[in-house]
Structures are given as structure tokens and as C-alpha cells.
UniProtKB/TrEMBL annotation:
PANTHER family: TRANSMEMBRANE CHANNEL-LIKE PROTEIN 6, TRANSMEMBRANE CHANNEL-RELATED. It comes from Betta splendens (Siamese fighting fish). The chain crosses the membrane at residues 269-295, 370-390, 465-485, 512-533, 554-573, 593-614, 635-656, 662-681, 693-716, 766-783. It is a multi-pass membrane protein. Coiled coil: none annotated. This is Transmembrane channel-like protein.
Length: 835
């Protein structure tokens, strides 16, 4: 309420975001006291003030009290700012207000709170004084002088009392300047920012403070020690600011993200922000698995295999060969407790499950099976917590109640950072703000287009045909992948039967790339068909087009991943001897590595050549000046697809997150270069405030949920290999913890409680379902809280509008009653004069 009251309902939402300049507790507690004091003082001063105000308004032809300006503001300047048509539509215009009406209106809260600049200066004088003294008490309104209290003084009336008020105001301003000068720089800036004054008034206060400091410094004699102290403090401050600027510049891809956001908008920017988020997820997984699995096993390597493999170069593509006997895959890890002091001969040492360990170490123990099980489990568990937290936080940030008009006003007037002084940074910020303003304006202007019944039926039929084509193409692709993977599996079975025949090992490894190549080719070509169908549908809203593309690409990726998981866990893991595998976990890890690598290769080729060739075709053949737009849905689903492969493969390939980190790092620069050269900004700017939330939600459900189900099913149900890995000889991977609990309970019966807790929390799948249910309930309740807040704020906004209507009605009724009384009082006088 720092500005004049305006009864125009179109601007009420703008006033709702402004901060009240006077402390609400002080004003509301003393409001009745103010009215009482003003009603008691009905002498010549208030009467003269109201009569003079009425006379001035009558002379200027301005009878609308709703447009009274603050002291010192020119009526004629304000009159020029308002359109004549808007004034004529206001029911409060062209009314002749009486002095009684003006007196009541001047006592209303909207007329008395925060309208006086002197009251604002007086209030913030007390605030700065309190801040200096470090006290928590609030000043009473009795401490304010008469001139500092809110009133209608200063509206073009020149009296002796006004002279006293102006002198008091000036003295308060000088005291406020002194208090601001004695504050710290940060407190001073914060206090000036909170003051509900115009920019010119704030600038004058800041200039007065700086001038006062300059005068005081020039009047004082600066000694040698003081000069040295000032120089040291200035150097320390400059060094600290430089250090903060350096830390700020260390933010990953900050300048590049600003450049993309300023040129292409928030839609394309959301893709790169999502890629950055996935990079940090994989970095967390790599740190966990590298610290607790890879590093201990690399330091204490198991017994070297009898077969020495040589590096041929093809392993970089297939992941097999030389890499098979490294810490990259599951089969390399031993199944015993690592000990620190040295290696003993493993002969004669038999495990509890009847198998011989690969490595036996003495002294400092490190149980590798338990470390492997709990490291993978806890890494996925903490990833789930981070995902749920990110999703709930993103829900709270994106599904806000702010209207486009209010966000637009804040973006126009409050978005510039005056600390930015470098020319390149200024250009980036200006481009970013301009793009966001375009998106907000497009959101404000968009509306529901009226269509006829025939047009609606035609569009529904087109959408139905489009979805039928997309679903049929997805089902056909899924069946093609299913039968081709079965063919590859049968070919491996045939190769295992003809083991003694002369075969080329390089050719056998190259055949393993067939299935990843086919799947990656389908993932690259089918989204193009989806885009063609969407182009035929002719969506009016770009955001609707993006969401539809997301849903269709998600349907394809989920179907493909489901078939692949069935191929790995239902065919390969169910009967590994039929294809000649001694360690099916390492084979599945190699498959996941190949799929991840092929996905990166095809994505890079599509960015470097596909988008480039399409741009040349559009410019040279189609003779279009516009470049193609960046396909957000397709690229985002490719990221989610690759991340799902990484989460599934972390059990079989502990170093797969490192491969994913390298892939995402290279992909960022490839996509960045392709976007800058081959793409352009969307034709219709649109704001995607909920896009990041949708990306995180899709990453959690179904990506992470599906990967967790696959990993949990593998640990709980599938029998591990009997000749490799940390769980060899066990029926399931989860029995590693069960055997340890049984051993601890046998050695120390007091630890039976720990064994029962392990059986209830780890071995019982019900606990996992309960935990997943709790996370879902948390997400549900958070979304319900956000919905409730949205409902409450919408009701409050409606209440504000209704109160504005009530205020109009009351003022109009008050004026009509006054006019009726005036006419009734004039009639007896006329009758008396006639008599």
C-alpha cells in the first residue's frame, strides 16, 4: 500500500505484491487512536484543510478522491497519465464530494496508512535507530510527532502548521541520514531497499549519506596509521570480493547456460539444466561406488587369471575382451574379506558356502560381499531421497500462484542486477530478460480460441488418427526388438555349441553390437515420425506440442527398456550356460556399456549431421530463412533413457556412472554447439515454468522406479553366478547379509536383535514397499499442500476484489445519502423564503 488507492480492479493484483511501508502491528493497534485524535481535533485547522481541498478540487474539475496524490505530487502530471476513457468508465468520477465525505474517506486505512512521506521517514528513522542499538522493542505511535503521522496534510495547502510539519520532516530526514551513515554497508543497502519510497527519494537519501561521509572524512585529519588501516581494509575487501567472484565463476557452465537462456528461452534452457542435474547424480554414484567398491578392490586385486588378454582397441566399443578382467565389471570382485597386512595363500581356505575365495588378506578386514550389497543399495536409496526432495522442491517452485501480469511487472521493474558491470555480462543479462519478457507477454496474450462443433470433431479425429499411428509404430518397434533380441540369443546359443570350430573372436565381439545398433536406430528414427504426426495435428500452443511429444517419446522409451530388461533378466540370467557364459553379470554389464555407448554415438551423429543437414536442406532446398527448432522432448527422453541404463547397470558395472559422466560432459558441448549453429529460437515464445518439474518427475517415475525394480528383483530373486563375483555360491545376493548375521549371532548371542532387525528390514520385501509408499505419500501430501495454498491465495485474491467492490459501493452510497440530506435541507429553506 505504498502507492495511491486506485479503484481499478485490473490493477489490484499488482498492488498485492507491494510491501506495506508501515509496520502492521503498530498501525493496526493505534489506528482507532488515530481516528479518535483526528475526530477530536475538529477546529479551524481541519475544517480549513478540508474546505481548501474541496475548493481546489472544484477549481481543477477533479472530483474523484480515489486519485488523490501524495504530498508534493502534481495533479496535472497525474492527470496526464490516465486515459480519458478509463476515467469515464469509473462510477466514482464526476461526483461532487462534500467535506463530511472527504473527512470520512481521509480516515480510511487506505488513506491513512503509508501515504505520508514524513511518516515513512520517521518510521525508518526509528528502525535504523533500533538496528544501531540492537534492540528488539518497537517504537510506539505516541513517539511520532503530529506531522509524522499519516494524514492528508500536504495536498497543495500552505499554512503555518504545514511549515512546522515540513521542518519536522526535514529534521527527521537528517536524523535518518545520520543513522544510515552509522550503519554497516549491507544493513544500509538493505534498509534503503525496504523503504517504500520512489527511486528518486532513495537515490537522494543515498547521496545524502555519501555526502555526509565525505564531509566528515574531509574534516578529520587522517594519520599515517589510519591511512594504512584504510588501505589494508580496502585491500582485504577487494580481495574478498574477488574471491567471491571467483567462486561464483566456478559454477558449472554458468555463462553458457545464460547464453542459451537469453537466446532460446527457458524451454531449451531447461534441457541443459536437466543435463547438468543428471551429471551431478552420476557424480554422486561414481563417488560412492568408487570409494567403497572400486578403490578397495583395485588396491587388493584378486588372484590373476591364467588367461592373459591383450588390448586390441575394439574393447572401447564392445566393452569386452581386455576390460572383462578389470574392476569395471561385477565378475572381477572377490567374495571374501579383504585384510590389510598382506596376501596369504588361498589354498586350504574354504568359505561357508563351500567355495574357495579369490583373495585372502589379514588384519584390517573389509567384507567385500557386504560392501558390494550395501553400497549399491544405499547409493540407490540416497539417490531416491535426493530425487524425491528435488521433485517436491520443484513442485513448490513451479506450481506457483503468481499471475503472468504480476510476474511480468516484477520482471520489468525488479529483475536487473546493478552489480553487473562487464559488457559481456550486461549483454547476457539483457538478452535473458528480454526473452523472459517475450515469454510472459505471449502467456498473457494467449487465450482460448473459439471453435465450432465441426472443427472440434475434426481435430478430435485428427488427434485420434495421430495417436493410433504413434501407438502402432511403437508396438511394431517393440515386437521388432523382441524378435531380433531372440535371434541374437539363439545365435549365441549356436556359437556356444560350436565352440571348437574355427571362429574369429573379433567378429564374434562385433556381432554383439548388432542389438545396440538396432535399438539406437529405432530410438533415433521413430521420434522423427512422432514429430511429423504432430506437425499434421497443428497444435496452437507450443507447450502443448512439447507435452504431447514427451508422452509419445516416453511411451517408446519405456517399452524398449522393458523388452531389454526382459532379455537380460529373463533370457540371459535364467539360463547362462546355454550361451556359454560363466559370469552372466559381467555379460549384462557389457551389454549395458554397449547400449550406453551406442546411444551416445547416435545422439552425437544426429546432432552433428542430422540437424546440420536439415538446416542446409531448409535453407538451400526449401528456401526458408528460418532454421529448425530444438526438439526438447526428444532430447530430454534420450537423457532419461541413458540415465535409466546407468542406474540399471550400476549393479553389474560399478564404473558405469563414470562412463555416463563422460558421455554427459561431451554431450553438453556437442548439443550446445549444434543449438547455437543449427537451431533457432521458437517461433512462438512460451514460458515453461513447469517443464523442469515434469523432467524430474519423469526421471523419478518411471525411470528410477523401473531401474530400482530391476535391481531389487536381481538381488532378491535371481541366482548369481557360481564362479565369479562377490556372491558366488549363494542362492541370492541378499543371502550375503543373512549369512553374516547368522555368524554374528553365533559368535555373540547378544546380537540376535541385530539379526532380527536385518531380517525384518532387509530380507523382507514389505519394508521396501512401505518405504516406497511413504515416499509416495510425502509427494502426494506436498502436492496437496501446494494445491491448498493455490486455492487459499485464489480465494484471497477474490476477497480483495470483492472488498474493492464493497468500497466502491459504500463510498457511492455515502455520497448519495449526503446528497439526499442536502436536498431535503434546501427544501425547507426555499419554503421559508417563499413565505
Amino acid at each position: 500500500m505504498a502507492h495511491n488507492v486506485n479503484f481499478n480492479l485490473n490493477d489490484l493484483h499488482m498492488d498485492a505484491v507491494l510491501e506495506s511501508p508501515v509496520d502492521e502491528e503498530v498501525v493496526h493497534d493505534s489506528f482507532n487512536q488515530l481516528i479518535a485524535e483526528q475526530s477530536q481535533d475538529e477546529g479551524q485547522y481541519d475544517a480549513f484543510e478540508l474546505q481548501q481541498l474541496q475548493r481546489d478540487l472544484d477549481e481543477e474539475g477533479r472530483d474523484d478522491v480515489a486519485y488523490l496524490s501524495s504530498p508534493g505530487y502534481d495533479f496535472e502530471d497525474q492527470n496526464e497519465d490516465w486515459d480519458s476513457d478509463e476515467r469515464l468508465t469509473d462510477p466514482l468520477v464526476d461526483e461532487r464530494w462534500s467535506s463530511d465525505t472527504l473527512k470520512i474517506l481521509s480516515s480510511m486505512p487506505s488513506r491513512t496508512i503509508g501515504r505520508s512521506r514524513g511518516a515513512i521517514i520517521s518510521q525508518y528513522y526509528n528502525r535504523t535507530l533500533q538496528l544501531r542499538r540492537r534492540r528488539q522493542s518497537r517504537p510506539s505511535i505516541r513517539d511520532f510527532s503530529r506531522s509524522a503521522r499519516p494524514s492528508i496534510l500536504g495536498y497543495g495547502i500552505e499554512t503555518d502548521s504545514c511549515t512546522y510539519a515540513i521542518d519536522a520532516k526535514v529534521s527527521k530526514k537528517e536524523q535518518l541520514v545520520n543513522n544510515l551513515r552509522n550503519l554497516a554497508v549491507g544493513d544500509r543497502v538493505r534498509m534503503l531497499r525496504e523503504m517504500p519510497l520512489s527511486m528518486s527519494d532513495k537515490s537522494d537519501l543515498r547521496k545524502s549519506v555519501l555526502d555526509r561521509e565525505t564531509q566528515i572524512k574531509s574534516s578529520k585529519r587522517v594519520t599515517c596509521c589510519s591511512d594504512l588501516k584504510i588501505c589494508v581494509l580496502s585491500a582485504v575487501r577487494r580481495g574478498w570480493y574477488s574471491w567471491l567472484s571467483f567462486l561464483h565463476s566456478l559454477h558449472l557452465w554458468q555463462v553458457a547456460l545464460k547464453r542459451v537462456g537469453g537466446r532460446f528461452g527457458t524451454g531449451v534452457l531447461s534441457y541443459f539444466v536437466f543435463l547438468k542435474t543428471l551429471l551431478f547424480f552420476n557424480l554422486f554414484l561414481f563417488l560412492v561406488t568408487g570409494t567403497f567398491l572400486v578403490l578397495p578392490q583395485a588396491v587388493h586385486s584378486p588372484v590373476s587369471p591364467t588367461e592373459n588378454r591383450t588390448f586390441k582397441g575394439l574393447e572401447l566399443v564392445t566393452g569386452a575382451g581386455y576390460f572383462s578382467d578389470t574392476v569395471m565389471y561385477y565378475g572381477y570382485y572377490c567374495n571374501d574379506t579383504l585384510r590389510m597386512s598382506g596376501r596369504n595363500d588361498a589354498r586350504g581356505h574354504i568359505m561357508a558356502n563351500g567355495t574357495k575365495p579369490d583373495c585372502v588378506w589379514n588384519n584390517l578386514s573389509y567384507n567385500m560381499p557386504l560392501a558390494y550389497f550395501f553400497t549399491i543399495g544405499m547409493a540407490l536409496f540416497f539417490t531416491c531421497i535426493i530425487l524425491v526432495y528435488s521433485m517436491s522442491k520443484s513442485f513448490g517452485q513451479s506450481f506457483r500462484i503468481d499471475k503472468s501480469q504480476s510476474i511480468l511487472a516484477m520482471k520489468v521493474f525488479c529483475s536487473w542486477d546493478f552489480r553487473v558491470v562487464r559488457e559481456s555480462s550486461v549483454k547476457l543479462m539483457s538478452d535473458n530478460i528480454c526473452t523472459q519478457i517475450k515469454e510472459l507477454l505471449a502467456e498473457v496474450k494467449q487465450g482460448d480460441t473459439s471453435t465450432t462443433v465441426c472443427q472440434k470433431l475434426w481435430r478430435m479425429m485428427v488427434h485420434g488418427v495421430a495417436w493410433t499411428i504413434c501407438i502402432a509404430a511403437t508396438i511394431g518397434s517393440v515386437f521388432a526388438i523382441y524378435y531380433f533380441s531372440d535371434y541374437i540369443h539363439q545365435d549365441l546359443q549356436q556359437l556356444s555349441r560350436n565352440r571348437n570350430a574355427n571362429r574369429n573372436p573379433l567378429l564374434d565381439e562385433a556381432k554383439l553390437l548388432a542389438l545396440p545398433v538396432v535399438v539406437s536406430l529405432i530410438n533415433m528414427l521413430l521420434p522423427g515420425l512422432f514429430n511429423l504426426v504432430a506437425w499434421m495435428e497443428e497444435y496452437d500452443s507450443p507447450s502443448t506440442y512439447t507435452y504431447i511429444s514427451l508422452s509419445r517419446n516416453l511411451m517408446l522409451k519405456v517399452s524398449v527398456l522393458g523388452i531389454l530388461c526382459y532379455h537380460w533378466l529373463g533370457r540371459v540370467a535364467a539360463d547362462p550356460q546355454s550361451i556359454g557364459l560363466t559370469c552372466w553379470e559381467s555379460f549384462v554389464g557389457q551389454e549395458l556399456y554397449r547400449f550406453l555407448l551406442m546411444d551416445f554415438i547416435f545422439t552425437a551423429l544426429d546432432s552433428l549431421f542430422g540437424e546440420f543437414l536439415w538446416r542446409l536442406f531448409s535453407e538451400k532446398v526449401l528456401k526458408r530463412r528460418r532454421k529448425p527448432e530444438f526438439d526438447i522432448a526428444r532430447n530430454v527422453l534420450e537423457l532419461i533413457y541413458g540415465q535409466t541404463l546407468a542406474w540399471v547397470g550400476v549393479l553389474f558395472t560399478p564404473l558405469l556412472p563414470a562412463v555416463q559422466i563422460i558421455k554427459l560432459w561431451l554431450l553438453f558441448y556437442i548439443k550446445m554447439g549444434s543449438v547455437m549453429i543449427n537451431c533457432q529460437a521458437p517461433r512462438k515464445p512460451y514460458r515453461v515454468s513447469q517443464m523442469t518439474t515434469i523432467f524430474i518427475t519423469l526421471l523419478c517415475f518411471p525411470s528410477f522406479l523401473g531401474a530400482s525394480v530391476c535391481v531389487t528383483y536381481t538381488m532378491w530373486s535371481i541366482t548369481p553366478s557360481s564362479s565369479c563375483g562377490p556372491f558366488r555360491g549363494l542362492k541370492t545376493m541378499i543371502q550375503a547379509g543373512k549369512h553374516l548375521m547368522e555368524k554374528l549371532e553365533k559368535d555373540n548371542p547378544k546380537l540376535s536383535v541385530l539379526a532380527r532387525a536385518h531380517a525384518f528390514l532387509v530380507e523382507n520385501p514389505l519394508f521396501l514397499f512401505v518405504g516406497a509408499g511413504i515416499f509416495l505419500i510425502v509427494i502426494y501430501f506436498h502436492s496437496q499442500v501446494v494445491d491448498g495454498q493455490r486455492t487459499i491465495i485464489s480465494l484471497l485474491q477474490r476477497q480483495i476484489e470483492n472488498e474493492g467492490e464493497d468500497k466502491k459501493f459504500l463510498i457511492t452510497s455515502l455520497q448519495s445519502i449526503h446528497e439526499n440530506k442536502r436536498t431535503q435541507s434546501r427544501r425547507p429553506r426555499r419554503q421559508d423564503s417563499n413565505c
